Amino acid sequence: MPFEPINPPEFPTPIAPYSAGAKAGDTVYVSGVLALGEGGVVLHVGDAAAQTRHVLEVIKTTLAAAGATMADVAMNHIFLKDLADYPVFNQIYAEYFPGDKPARYCIKCELVKPDCLVEIASVAHLG
């Protein structure tokens, strides 16, 4: 099945060879999102809440470009640099998923940029 790359104009130039998202049939895949600006500059250094909000806003924008909303998200893959940020992450996350909650997992790991604290990849289903 062919897929359609999704690259909203608000999305900064990727730091590696990938699209912000991809739409295949009724499924939208959002690449792992970090709190990055143009040129790969890390935004909101040291602020897990602000990075979480930024990441979720980018996901929301990418989904919208594919015709989806946050309510269409069925699965989130969550990566945290420090599990001490888990409570504040969940507080912000809950604002973006107020109704039915998507499936998810969360792991602690190093991220591609040392100042990044949060990364999320999402899968949404349309229709």
Give an overview of the whole structure:
This protein has helices spanning 48-65, 86-96, and strands at residues 4-6, 21-24, 27-33, 73-80, 103-108, 118-125. It is an alpha+beta fold and 127 residues long. Strands 1-2-3-6-4-5 form a 6-stranded mixed sheet, covered by helices on one side. Helix 1 (48-65) runs parallel beside helix 2.
Write the topology of this structure:
Elements (H helix, E strand, L loop, with lengths): L3 E3 L14 E4 L2 E7 L14 H18 L7 E8 L5 H11 L6 E6 L9 E8 L2
Parallel strand pairs: 4-5
Antiparallel strand pairs: 1-2, 2-3, 3-6, 4-6
Which descriptors would you attach to this protein?
127 residues, alpha+beta, 6-stranded mixed beta sheet, 6 strands, 28% strand, globular
Strand content: 25-35%
Strand order of the largest sheet: 1-2-3-6-4-5
SSE topology string: EEEHEHEE
Shape: globular
Assembly type of the shown chains? Answer: single chain
Q: How would you summarize what this structure contains?
A:
This protein is of the alpha+beta class and 127 residues long.
